[in-house]
Specification:
- It contains 2 helices and 2 strands.
- By secondary structure, the chain is mainly alpha-helical.
- A hairpin with a 4-residue loop joins strand 1 and strand 2.
- Strands 1-2 form a two-stranded antiparallel sheet.
- Helices cover about 70% and strands about 10% of the residues.
- It has one domain.
- The chain binds zinc ion.
- Zinc ion binds next to loops.
Length: about 80
Amino acid sequence: MFSLSKLIWLGVILFVVWKFFRFVEKRQALKERSDANNEKPANKQDSDNDTLDAIYCSRCATFAADERCECADSGIFD
Ligand SMILES: [Zn+2]
């Protein structure tokens, strides 16, 4: 048989469990957001370096760090 005090305790326990999961969920979301913020600047810097500094040389099929590929200076294709 249900008594009023048992129902109240059931409600209290459900409330505490619900609050606990909300807290864990919130902390996880905060952690993921801070991780994303930490990774984002590094990735952005890497992609900027790739687009600014690296060029593709079709003659020797490699990426060169300068505007001119080394093969142009060495003259092996001329
Ligand atoms: Zn080259």
